[in-house]
Amino acid sequence: MKNLLFFGDSLTAGHGLPAAASFPSLIQRRLDEQQLPYKAYNYGVSGETSAGGRQRLASVLARHAVDAFVLALGANDGIRGIPVRETTHNLQFIIDAVKRQHPRAQAVLAGLEFPFDLGPLGGHRLAHYATEFKALFRTLAEKNSLPFVPFLLQGVLGRHDLNLADGVHPNAAGQRILAENVWQILGPLLLSRTDSPVPAAE
């Protein structure tokens, strides 16, 4: 079996839901159904910032040989208004460490967006931050030649029916959409490393 690590925050952890409802668990189900030889590990920690992820990365990488690594951090940086340069630096550190320790691992970066459209409200400074925050993920993906999930919360953000009562964390239905967003990029990559056909997504 090959090891697939999901490294993120509450969105990855499946905050407020049973572990089986988190998108990494849903992707494990697809892997099993399609007989792809991967074991998914969910290293999502609620409340985690990119700085926190940087600090705990070494202990995570020490536990497994890594064949694939999905990086989905940064949402809490955006909520806290952490400078984009700091988030970028921390995520680059994580990418470099994975490449250095596991040079053959397939890494994937998940993009995020600041959760509010502030432009019409006249919040020009915050709107500028939101624009920079969104751009940092694609810039990192291009710089490091990483496959890129453009927006992890695509189709879920702002949908009351797809989020918990807090309006921030996806519910079980929302997590299924997150799994699909990630699978569209991750699935073909894992297929390319095996001889097994991958059926079309549902």
Alpha plus pi helix count? 7
Summed over residues and divided by their number, the pLDDT gives a mean of 91
Which structural class best describes the helix and strand composition?
Answer: alpha/beta
Range of helix content: 40-55%
The biggest beta sheet is recorded as:
5 strands, parallel
Total E-strand runs: 5
Shape: globular
Detail the poorly predicted runs.
Answer: 117-122, 196-202
Strand order of the largest sheet: 2-1-3-4-5
Q: How much strand?
A: 5-15%
Radius of gyration: 16 Å
Helix and strand pattern: EHHEHEHHEHEH
Distance between the termini: 25 Å
Structural key phrases:
alpha/beta, 7 helices, 202 residues
Can you walk me through this structure?
Pfam families: Lipase_GDSL_2. Helix content is 45%, strand content 13%. It starts with a strand and ends in an 11-residue tail after the last helix. The protein contains seven helices and five strands; from the N terminus they run βααβαβααβαβα. It has helices spanning 10-13, 23-33, 50-61, 75-80, 84-101, 124-143, 172-191, and strands at 2-8, 38-44, 68-72, 106-110, 148-149. The chain is an alpha/beta fold.
